[in-house]
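Good morning C.,

I know you're traveling, so I'll keep this short. The sequence:
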Amino acid sequence: MRIGISARGLSVVSGGAKEYIKQLISHLIKIDSSGEYFVYFDSKSYLETFSAKNLTKVVIKFPSRIIWDHVLLPIRMQRDKIDVGFFPKNVIPYLGGFKKVVGILDLAYYMPELNAYRALDTLYMKTLIPGTIRRADKVITISANTKKDIFRFIKGTREEKIEVVHLAGSYTKNYGSNRKVRRIYSIGNSPYIFFAGSLSPRKNIQRTLRALARIKEQVPHNFVVTGGKSWKDSDIPGLVSKLGLKDRMIKLGFVEDRDMGNLFAEADMYLHPTLYEGFGMTILEAFAARCPVISSNVSSIPEVAGDAAILVDPYSVDEIAAAIIKLHENKKLRTDLVKKGLRRLKKFSWEKTAKETLNVINEVYDSSKK
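The tokens, ready to paste straight into the viewer:
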């Protein structure tokens, strides 16, 4: 079987979708030596990321993602005689006489109150996702919650078309505490609360900052934040100053993958009161680093975290603040959460993600032979 995979999503600077594509391809070519894999890139930057005897790497250069996704990619897949194409980022092309499987990562585009994505991205996805789900031979969602959202927003979707395949965490090989990262990122020796990811509205940074301001005299921690410039984050510096957190907040900007595990491990807690996630990969990264987690009781988070994190109403500043105090003051709770997190982590692996994805691809391929 010839399997084609769109890897255009690797071109973004960082994020869960990029990690998903990278890890999935790496593990698919490792576990499936009998399949012929064709991976399609939009630049040469990531060609060296993957290597296998059964892998063909193809670069298609074109500035327009619409033309790339819907014209050039399917034409090249057709030329390469692909049996099943896998499109891991929400949309499939109209062209191409081969079977198609799509990965739906989240449907935040349909929730305007989250203000999750830029207007053009939202329009693009809301225009194409319904047709993608109707035309795909199979749909993979990365959580049961995203599957539920499909039924909520895309009416008429058949349940048997959708398979849930969970993701895993990154940086799990690099979970040991290493104080060198404090020097590298000028964090200093004070204890800190960690916040990994963008500062876009759906990450709930404003309520998080208000919760921290409310308890800043009760905890000794600094607030360490990763992530570069984000969507709708221009008012954050002003809010930090207004709340009197300027001396307590350390913004690292972009952080290399190799350092993330140590940053989690050095933290006293990971604060993740997100408003919506398709999965919640960073929770597993914190578990691997033995870092206790405070997260949300909404969307996919309970599905990923189980009983291994403190889950709060992300719209309640009071609940976020109370959870920080509770975790700070209760050493036994921190120890228990770390143990539960390590147990919970065993339910997820990239090998499992790859195997379950391959099962879906095989099912689609076998159905074409009947």
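Safe travels,
E.
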